[in-house]
From TrEMBL, chain A:
Record's subcellular location: Cell membrane
Keyword terms of this UniProt record: Cell membrane, Membrane, Transmembrane, Transmembrane helix, Transport
GO molecular function terms noted in the UniProt entry: amine transmembrane transporter activity; carnitine transmembrane transporter activity
Source organism of this protein record: Aminobacter anthyllidis
Annotated GO CC locations: ATP-binding cassette (ABC) transporter complex
Domain ABC transmembrane type-1: 149-329
Keyword Cell cycle set for record: no
Protein name: ABC transporter permease subunit
Gene Ontology process terms (BP): choline transport; glycine betaine transport
Cited SUPFAM superfamilies: MetI-like
Topological type in the membrane: Multi-pass membrane protein
Gene3D superfamilies documented for this protein: MetI-like
Location, primary (coarse class): membrane
Length: 344, 349
């Protein structure tokens, strides 16, 4: 007799159990148990009442295997209706990614470098940083990694732009409502703690691997969190006195937002964007598993085909790109900070 | 007597979750300490009645935590009262909706803050022009008004600088210019000079007095410094634990403190420098008796100097050229001895 059978009998659930006993496919464990036959009953007379153990006592209770299969079925069932909504909404993302990648690659190398160096210069206004950026790109081009780096960069730019576009307004909304903050915080925690691979699993089900939005969504979900968090934090930390001054002179809440809160929160918001850029970069490498182009594909090749040199050089390229992105966004941040510092 | 610009009537403010229910206790005579102990609510203000006269400087004085900031924030409804009313220029501000309240704040009142509260990312010119730009005035008009008032407070030439490039005193001048730019009647100053060092502070007080001579704004000025209060006040309100202990003309309060608390306050000041001849003189319209002439607005210090230490001397006190009284040096000496409290709530409102 299986453990816990008595318990179900005592609870009067016998008929319910019998009615639910449908057999279903046997698991390996069941087969082994059958082969071992009786006599091993008291090998463990008091096992943990897990789903599998309880199933033996009462057929109506699903096995763990049934549960995961059920989850999969549920997912497949809702997939189509979800896609009806999600597909058109996310289509612009695919479009933007595809075009950005094409654009970056269609530019002649000197034009691309010129544009990137110019962006770096105007964002940071630091000669040292600008020269470093120039050297980094020339170096990448010299070892024939420029095209890959451009693909990676294009993806990061598009994703960062979308993260800011949505993250900052969400952060603003969050700073205005304590309730929203309470509700959103666990989700943001979840997005940040979930292992990056886990993002990809439901997305693969929803979208085909050939669509850029697959990795686009994964990157955005992962990288948007600091933009939201730091916008919220920055606005909440705005000097109460200055806000009060705005109020005392009759500012509307809209005026308070764009004349006081956003400018005073700008250092924090920029710090959030810096983190968003860095997280995008780390995710775009992992997203090469689901066909994101760029330096990540080379790393993947290094792993899959044991081409040690290819993987390492691509890895170094990623590090170089990371330093470039970090230095430029940090220089921009410092420029903003300088305006806000030394206040009494 | 001049008319009131702001009337505060039976104002109560209680901080806590169940504030409205606490009002009845406060009305029944419960004070700050007891309310905190018995009900866990902070009694911010209790039964405040003040008439703020048009064109005068009303100074609200009290120690830290006595409720000064809470009181001044009721005038522009940065804080809402728990009970009572605030009438500004004939309108009960509790009856205003959000838009009309904003309108009131834009047109009728301005505020100067202890920590300046300037916008760090905007230039001095933009900061000073803030009240205009908030109202939606055009850039050119805003800048012109701001420039005018910056010049008036002595900041011509600093328009393009950012606040962090200025010293504290200059930053507060920007704060003052900002308040003036709003061109509103009521000016609220919450410890506006407390963060400045003494010399700068004194020159800022002079600036305010000089501006006041030309503009005659209705000013509510908060301070915890008695010398500052006596220098500026036309009407002095003394707060303690959220209640008014005494209010009236400063000279009168100095000579007739209503309460040991105020006696303490006034005991260490230099009375000779603060008391004025007209507060101490005898009101006689006597004929010409050959005494030396002294103006009623002079301080006792001046009178002592003029007497060369002679204790039996007398002066003929004049005001606006006419004889108003006689000052005996013996009275001067008496006035210099700190007065004991003359009983409770002896105010001359
Ligand atoms: N939002 C609030 N919640 C609870 N208590 C408050 C609040 N604001 C003020 N108080 C209390 O009200 C009392 C008066 O505070 P207020 O800031 O008006 O004092 P103040 O006279 O301006 O003091 P200071 O000279 O330090 O500025 C204090 O006991 C303070 O703790
Ligand atoms: Mg205060």
């Amino acid at each position: 007799m299986a453990p816990y059978e008595k318990a179900f009998e005592a609870l009067g659930l016998w008929s319910w159990c019998d009615a639910g006993a449908t057999g279903g496919p046997m698991s390996m464990d069941d087969l082994l148990a059958k082969a071992g036959a009786a006599g091993s009953d008291n090998a463990e007379s008091f096992p943990f009442p897990s789903l599998d153990v309880l199933h033996k006592a009462c057929g109506a209770i699903p096995r763990t295997r049934d549960m995961t299969a059920g989850l999969e079925r549920l997912f497949l069932d809702v997939k189509d209706p979800v896609k009806v909504v999600l597909d058109p909404v996310t289509q612009p993302l695919s479009w933007a990614l595809r075009n950005a990648i094409d654009l970056m690659q269609s530019l002649p190398w000197w034009a691309a470098i010129l544009i990137l160096v110019a962006i770096a210069h105007f964002a940071g206004r630091r000669i040292g940083v600008t020269v470093f950026v120039l050297m980094a790109f020339l170096g990448l081009a010299f070892i024939d990694h420029f095209g890959y780096a451009m693909q990676t960069l294009a993806i990061i730019m598009v994703c960062t732009f979308i993260c800011v576009l949505f993250g900052v307004p969400i952060g603003i909304a969050m700073s205005r409502s304590n309730r929203l903050e309470r509700w959103l915080t666990p989700f943001l925690d979840l997005l940040q703690t979930l292992p990056t691979f886990v993002y990809l699993i439901p997305l693969i089900f929803l979208f085909s691997v050939t669509e850029p939005k697959l990795y686009g969504i994964a990157i955005i979900l992962y990288a948007i969190v600091p933009s939201i968090r730091l916008t919220n934090l920055g606005i909440r930390l705005v000097d109460k006195d200055v806000l009060e001054a705005g109020e005392a002179f009759g500012m509307t809440s809209w005026q308070k937002l764009y004349r006081v809160q956003l400018p005073l929160a700008l250092p924090n918001i920029m710090a959030g964007i810096n983190q968003t850029i860095m997280l995008s970069l780390s995710m775009v490498v992992i997203a090469s598993l689901v066909s994101a182009p760029g330096l990540g594909t080379l790393v993947l090749r290094g792993i899959n085909k044991l081409e040690l040199g290819v993987g390492l050089v691509a890895g170094l390229g990623i590090v170089l790109l990371a330093i470039v992105l970090d230095r430029v966004s940090r220089a921009a941040l410092q420029r903003v900070n300088k305006m806000h510092q030394s206040r009494t | 007597m001049t008319e009131s610009f702001v009337s505060i009537r039976n104002l109560y403010k209680i901080f806590g979750n169940n504030a409205p229910a606490m009002v009845s206790y406060a009305k029944a005579g419960m004070h700050k300490k007891d309310m905190l102990q018995a009900h866990g609510h902070v009694l911010g203000l209790r039964d405040i009645n003040v008439e703020i006269k048009k064109g005068e400087i009303t100074v609200i004085m009290g120690l830290s935590g006595s409720g000064k900031s809470t009181l001044i924030r009721h005038l522009n409804r940065l804080v809402d009262p728990t009970a009572g009313e605030v009438i500004v220029n004939g309108t009960d501000i509790m009856k205003l909706d959000r838009v009309r309240l904003q309108q009131l704040r834009r047109t009728q009142m301005s505020m100067v803050f202890q920590k300046f509260a300037l916008l760090p990312h905007e230039t001095v010119l933009r900061n000073a022009g803030m009240p205009c730009s908030v109202r939606g005035d055009g850039r050119a008009k805003t800048d012109e008004t701001a420039r005018k008032w910056l010049r008036r407070v002595g900041l011509a030439g600093s328009e393009a600088l950012y606040p962090h490039q200025l010293s504290g005193g200059m930053q507060q001048r920007v704060g003052l210019a900002r308040a003036l730019t709003s061109n509103s009647e009521l000016m609220l100053m919450d410890e506006a000079y407390s963060a400045l060092d003494p010399l700068i502070r004194s020159s800022m007080q002079d600036l305010l007095q000089e501006l006041q001579k030309d503009l005659q704004k209705t000013v509510v000025f908060i301070t915890h410094d008695l010398d500052e209060a006596l220098k500026l006040a036309d009407h002095l309100v003394i707060l303690k634990d959220g209640e008014i202990v005494q209010q009236g003309e400063p000279q009168y309060i100095l000579l007739n403190p209503a309460d040991p608390y105020i006696e303490d306050f006034v005991s260490d000041i230099n009375r000779a420098r603060v008391l004025r001849v007209r507060s101490v003189m005898e009101k006689t319209i006597a004929e010409d008796d050959g005494y030396e002439v002294l103006d009623g607005d002079e301080t006792l210090e001046r009178a002592i100097l003029r007497s060369h230490g002679a204790a039996d001397k007398s002066f003929a006190v004049h005001s606006d050229g006419t004889r108003v009284g006689t000052l005996k040096m013996t009275d001067v000496l008496k006035a210099l001895v700190p007065t004991a409290a003359t009983g409770r709530n002896h105010s001359n409102v």
